[in-house]
Amino acid sequence: MNTTFLLMAQFNKAIVPLDQICKEYFGLESRTAKNYAKAGRLPVPAFRTSDSNKSTWMVNVTDLAEYLDKLRDTAKKDLISAA
Question: Do 14 and 59 touch, CB atoms closer than 8 A?
Answer without folding.
Answer: no
